[in-house]
Each structure stands twice: as structure tokens, then as C-alpha cells.
Amino acid sequence: MTNEPLNIGGRRELFLDRELIDTLSNTTLRLGIPRREENVLAFDEPWEGRFAGSTNVIKDDECYRMYYRCSGYGVDGKEDVLSEQTAYAESTDGINWVKPELNLHEFRGSTKNNLILPDGDERRISHNFMVFKDTRAGVPDDERYKGVGGSRKRGLFRMVSADGIRWRMFSDEPIFFGYPLDTVNVAMWSEHEQCYVAYIRTWTDTSGGEEFRGYRTISRATSPDFLTWTEPERMDFGATPDEHIYTNGTHPYFRAPHIYIALPFRYVDDQTALTEAEMDAWNFDLDWQRHGASDAVLMSSRGGNHYDRTFMESFIRPGLDRGSWVCRSNCPAVGVVQTSDTEMSLYLQTHYMLPDYHLRRYSLRLDGFASVNASFAGGEMITKPIQFSGDKLTVNLSTSSVGSIRVEIQDETGVPLNGFALEECDIAFGDEIAQVVTWKGSADVSSLAGRTVRLRFVMKDADLYALQFVD
Fold first, then answer.
1. Which residues of 53-81 are buried (b: 16+ CB within 10 A; e: fewer)?
2. Using one digit for the tens of pLDDT, what is the confidence trace for 194-253?
3. Taking a C-beta distance cutoff of 8 angstroms, is the pair 308, 30 a contact?
4. Which residues partner with 394 through β-bridges?
5. For residues 94 and 363, what is the distance between their CA atoms, to the nearest angstrom?
6. Strands 53-60 and 63-72
7. Which of 7, 20, 80, 236 pairs with 87 at a CA distance of 20 to 30 A?
8. E strands of 351-412, at which residues?
9. What does the DSSP 8-state code read for residue 278?
């Protein structure tokens, strides 16, 4: 174990893991509760079908972009008659979405649709096409948008685009051939690690060759150039029980890109909430439709082959809505995006395979995935030794009218520093995304920049979501 201080510089740090936390005294890490908002997109066009999905959302300057699979089985439900295309929707606010008439690809003799990848592709790129905007310096303009999609039998293919709508192949050669890619596999450029990173579906037991066994899980590969990739390696989840992690949804958090947010949907194959009568009424004619349940969970990573599962509890439960208990419902779209000065949004596919199959929006306060929480009785949290840059400390906090947070800055041994002791700290309270902490009216902490310190938070009826030292 290293005794080196954590150099956080001017990064925003979230309390969704214990990376910064040394001790919690009468405080606890509490999982955020996304607020259910409106239904934002119905999969109701003739080309979309009841097996639409594999949705991902990105915020691209002032435009929000959404990509999703359009898919429909034949009457007999056999996959050999599967039709798959990729569709596109956009929004100016992340709330009100439109399906633009792009006139790019044909469906039943007409191009009046929002399709961006055509049907009839034997590579099955549309089965799980996932898009990201490449922010790496020096990327050619016509490769600024990148996407990956494919299948177990054909491998994962890479595509590029200048505008996010018109696509061409990056390479005819697939990557990760032979892996069980039959779900949403993600790729991204990581500023934090300075490489491309891919997270793909694997299984815990591959001893059966093509017959994968055990639990659905996640492996990771990296690339310096999007061309050559390392062999995928299994992700480590720490000392947690095995579960079917059906998707991974891993991507950099836009306000703290050194932290990767993962929003998988967790599949439970031996639990079924719906009655036989309900499934008969909904015409569930395929065996795999009639068993299982799923929900959304939260994981995080700071790079490398480790996921932090601080919270094993459900992030978004199916709830009272019976249609949300359909097998393979509640799959989060890849991507969390900001939708106001204080709010971010995520999206969930629900009512899977039902006539009203749709995408629903959920909201959280910015940085609100989790918090350090203190009850009315009060408690404390002390950080590990850290070093920072900047001249003032801001905190994302929420308190009651009688709640409060005070901050003491200590040396690395825990001794309060002159001018920054607890009794000198002005009470921070209210509900703000970035409240400045002061000591006897002064916010200036520049004299401590670069020095190894600890932060002691004394809290009452309060939540602390994030901190950041800023100039």
C-alpha cells in the first residue's frame, strides 16, 4: 500500500467510491435516486419494431444525438429473418426529441425515415451500433465521429463519420472476433488514459468454446490509434457476488472525465414477476421472453481493469409499472448528458417488446450519482492525504434548513492548520452545485496548494456530492 498523497490538482472529485475517503464516522455513502421524468421517444415507426434498442446518447455542443437499433422478427420469431438498421434522433434540450427525415436509406420502398445504416448488412453492425465523438487532438475531420457494431460470429466493426449521420467503414477487418458481442459494446477516447478504450461482453466461463457459460461479464481492451487493439482482459469487480451484467454502458463522466460512469442493466434469469396470464395477454411467443427480470445498476472506474461496485443496490428499480417488469426491460442507454444548469439526464428503455415500447428519461442533480450523507445527529468524513492546485474550495452540497457542512484543513498527520481549523470555518448550507467554502470570510487556500493536506468534513443533515479546488 502506497503512502503517496493523491494529487487531485484542480479535478472535480465525486463521492461515488472511496477513492478520496479515509474515514467515515456516523456518515455513509448514499446512492442517488434518479427521478422519473417523461417518456421521450416511442419505438412506434414501422421500421423500428418491438426489438428496437441498443440506444446511446451523446451531447454534441448544442445538439443532442441519439442512435438506436431498429429491428423486427418475422412471424415465426426466428433470427434468420431478422432485419436490422440503425436510426437517429436529435434534440436541442435532451428532453424533446425528433426523428428527422434523412432520406438516406430505404425501408419498404421509401427513404422518408430517420435511418442512417441500411438493412441487409451481413456484418450485423446495426445489431448494437454505438457512437462516440472522438476528442483526441489531430483526428481527421472526417473521422471525428466513430462507431462500433457487430456480432459474435462476425466480430466488431469500426465506422467513422464527419457529421455523425453519414458513415463509412474505418476498416474491413473486424476486431474481437469470436467474443460474445451480442449486446451493446462500447468504445471511447480516454483523455485520462490517453488511449482508446473498449468494453465488450464476455462470460465468466469460456471453457465450452462457443457455448459460453457462467455469468455475463465485461472485458476491456485498449488501442493507441483505433486500429490495433490489445486482447480483451476481464474486468475485476472486487469482492462482490457474481451477477449477470448484461450491458456495461461505460463512458467518461462529462464533468470529471477521469471517472468513467457505467450504467449496466443487471439480468436475473431465475426471477419472473409477471404472471402467465399477463404474458399471454401480451403475446409473448418466444421462450426467452417469458422468464427473467432486470434493473439498472451503477458502477464506476478510474481506468484500468477495475470496476468499483460501491453500491450493489438497484440504481433504477422497475417500480410499480407492470410493463417495466418485462424480461430485458430497464436497459439504460449509453450516455449521461447535462440538460440544465443543475441537472443531468439518463435514459431507460422500458416496456420492451410491448406495443408501447419506449425510452424514458430520468434526471439527477449534477454530480448526484451518490453522496456522503450525514443524518440529523451529525457525523464526519476525513479524506486521505491529498495535494491540490487552485485558490479556493467549492463543494456540491445539499442540506436541510437546520443542516450544515464545515470543513477543516489538516496537515497529513491530522493536525488542523492555522487559519483553517473547524471553528474558523464559516457554515456552508443550502443547496448548491458549487458553493465556495470560507474561513472567517476568506476563501483563499492558495497558500496550501501543492502541500499534502487532509480535509475533515463535519456534517449535519446534509449530503456532500463532490468537491473541487478552482482558480
1. bbbbbbbeeeebbbbbbbbbbeeeeeeee
2. 999 999 999 998 765 666 789 999 999 999 999 999 999 999 999 999 999 999 999 999
3. no
4. 436, 468
5. 11
6. antiparallel
7. 80
8. 358-365, 370-374, 379-383, 386-388, 392-411
9. H
